[in-house]
Amino acid sequence: MPFLKHLWKPSKSIFFYALLMALLVFALKWMQWKYLIADHSVDIYIGLIALFFTILGIWVASQLAKPKIETVVVEKEVYIVPPEEFVLNEAELKKLNLTTREYEVLQQLSKGLSNAEIGEQLFLSLSTVKTHVSNLFFKMDVKNRTQAIEKAKRLKLTP
Amino acid sequence: MPFLKHLWKPSKSIFFYALLMALLVFALKWMQWKYLIADHSVDIYIGLIALFFTILGIWVASQLAKPKIETVVVEKEVYIVPPEEFVLNEAELKKLNLTTREYEVLQQLSKGLSNAEIGEQLFLSLSTVKTHVSNLFFKMDVKNRTQAIEKAKRLKLTP
DNA sequence: CCCATTTTGGTACTTTAGTATGAGACGCTC
DNA sequence: GAGCGTCTCATACTAAAGTACCAAAATGGG
Question: Measured between alpha carbons, how far is B45 from B31 in angstroms, rounded to an integer?
Answer without folding.
Answer: 10
